[in-house]
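Human: I would love a firmer grasp of how sequence relates to backbone shape in proteins. Could you go through the record with me and say what the backbone is doing? Here is the record:
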Amino acid sequence: MTRASFDAVVTRLAESPTTFSERELLEPSHWSLGEDARLREDLRFRETPWGRWMLAEDLVVNDAIYRWLHAERRSSVALDAALKRAGEVFGRRCVFCADDPRFVLRHDEVHLAASELSRQPVVEDNVGDLEKYRTHLPLHSLKAAAASEPAGEWGKRAQDQVIETLGWVRVSLPERRLNDRMFIAAIEGHSMDDGKSGLVDGGYAVFELWPSGTKQNLSVLVRGAFSDPETGNYAVKKYVADQRDEEGRHNKVSLVSLNPNKERFPNIELQPEDDDDITVVAKVVQALSTEDYERRPKAKRHVGRRNLTGDEQATRLGRRVASFFDGTAPEADDEDTTATESTGWQTRLVCLDVAAGGMQLEAGPLDGLPNFVKKLRVVGSEWDAVVLAANAKTRPTRAPVRPGTGPWRWEAVGFEEEQDLGVDRLALDALATTTPLVFRVDADGVGQHTKSTTLSLGQAYRLLLPPGVCDDLGVALDDGWRIWSLDLAAPLSPTTRQRLTSLGLDVGEAWPRLEWALAPAAVWRTNARGDSYPVFQAGTELLVNVSGAAVDDSDEAMLFLHGPAGTERLPLSANGLVSLGTPAAGRWACALLHSRTSVGATTLLFDVADGALDAVTAACSTVAHSGLASLEAAAPPGWPVTLRWRVVAAYEELLATLYGDEDGTVPVDDVASIIEARAARTRLADLIVDFGELGRRVLPHDGRASLKQVREQLTALWQQRSGLVQSRKGAWLQLRKPWFEPVTELFGYGLEEATLLADVEAPHDLTAWGLTVDERMMGSITRSPSRVLVLTTDLDAVLRDHRTWIDSACSEAKVRDAIITDGARWTTHRKGSQQLKQQVWSLDHAIGLGSIDEMLGDLAEGL
């Protein structure tokens, strides 16, 4: 490609104030003609950091404009003015790159992107007379409290305010002309936030001084002269009064809160004589959206650093509490929040472990679902499931789902043709079937679906792998899907990190954990979105356990406690238990924040209440008349019941979490087959039925077979697999699963995974595995080493020449006895014994001669 062929491109760039994409520059003159030209081939061109192209001698002005707008607290500037200023400052021709995500180029004006702007307006001190009340309105210092008396925002306890004019704000009210009675004020509080009015905490609204006429059913700014007859206290409310009597007086006046949460934001009822003590100052013209006024840039932060000042975090946590408990809208840049439309009326995808059902669809609480709906059916492609509507109304309810069967929709059983029940809102689109699905496991052991491809150290995950993706990982599910459980609490091995990379997943920094410790909750409840939170009895000292908060010399970690009493900062110097004291009754947030933004924020939301313990007044029962598979359980409707399988004291396997039905029974039918399968292959175990605050029941299982059963099973096993054992003598790993594991299980042993003395050269194809035995002692099951299983191809030579090697294997396993076998012939050896003549049992002879009981007496344990 000749240099001259790019001359027209040089001319085009030299005449433009902005950069171009390579396609825009080369498509007309080169690519459309089939020429494979690239701008990187010519030193006259340079690529910007955002992938567009400019002349190498020019200067990109984006960073300078960004600094100037922040310094001057403006949100936009004319492009030609900015380029002229930059040219004078830098002495070079400057251009603007429009693909910079910090900006939006609109009508030859450079605007900061919405993500770069705060909610605070640009306040101008000096505006011309032609702009006042035409394009600009005054901003007054009063905060129009969307108040509630119980919260101390209204009434005699509320503070008086002195109003000042802070300056002028450029506003745009489509289809409405400004006038000199209008002004702007900030909204404080949540009582007028109904999701429609726009009167949200921290937002702004335009008011118009009250002229005259009826106030009935209008949102107004009122002043209550409760403490100072001159200034009073200001609040925004909907004014509702009854008809005046013959004397022209109201008998009832209400200042109505629009927020539907009347428990927290009740209406203010005034006596007739109180009507004279309030003054309607102005009516609400319009709540301002962030698009209606010019906004200031967000405060500049150090890249990668989080501001841990008390004021900023107090504001953020206040919004977080309101968003969680009252359903108010969170800020777009708030950490650890959910979307505003996130309610109980949606379907969420969660992932439990395989024993508990794997992938599940979760919906609820469905507040407002009609009582005549008794069952809900969730339908996918070639799959459906049914849940009780009563359970879904009061709490999050789950239904197991097969991967790859979406999209999913819900129906009210018996009322499928009803269009206004709202169940259409529960529809969920199908998931990707070519990439892994990532679920982060929460404190309750539930995997919550996340779209992030970066995993955090210190967290646990479940990965759902589609067919054909890493078929050697995890546990198999239906239709070729697999589930891989992954705990990142420890440093990752290079192999695990490589596997994650092959799946398109990264591993980021540690995500600190914040967990409740020592003091249990009196009760757990759910908010409108279905998120659970604990309620503690007032007067209880609360403690949290902090882990994973690594703090270097240049870093800082802080624990914030925010609630009705204010915001407290608790510095952290190390991980461990931290006392939160005895918080007063109210709603609280405890947040663990790190000074580096790359370290995720962790927040616990909780409630403290008087009489919280009174909420737990329920009973439960458990019985299994004919073995564990016949389990019957009873619990209050909606009460969570967790089933666990415990083989040894240190390990409990989660089988399922069920919930009490309307009639008080627990639906265990779907778990019976899982319990029966566990019991069939386990000699000793416990089934634990955990009712949470109501206690737990332990049902012991003793699956030890009788001598007759062992004799029959061993005979049948030898008849089926004797040919395999004799043909593969010496191939011990191949014979482990089909032969040695079932035989040693019949003998009463567990076979350990690792071989003994693997690093010592063994003659005659010798290898050894440890044998363990489970015993119930003092109500708990313990597992201890019992014997060593020595495998060889020449039983006689081993007994004659290699007793020292067998003794070493016994010492390694910390036992005294060994069982020696080639698969068909069996004998025993005691550590240190020099006796050459041992009883050798041949399975063929023992079965044929009927002496198998004597063989079992020599080799088996616990029969």
User: Anything to note?
Assistant: The two ends are 89 Å apart (CA to CA). The first helix runs from residue 7 to 14.
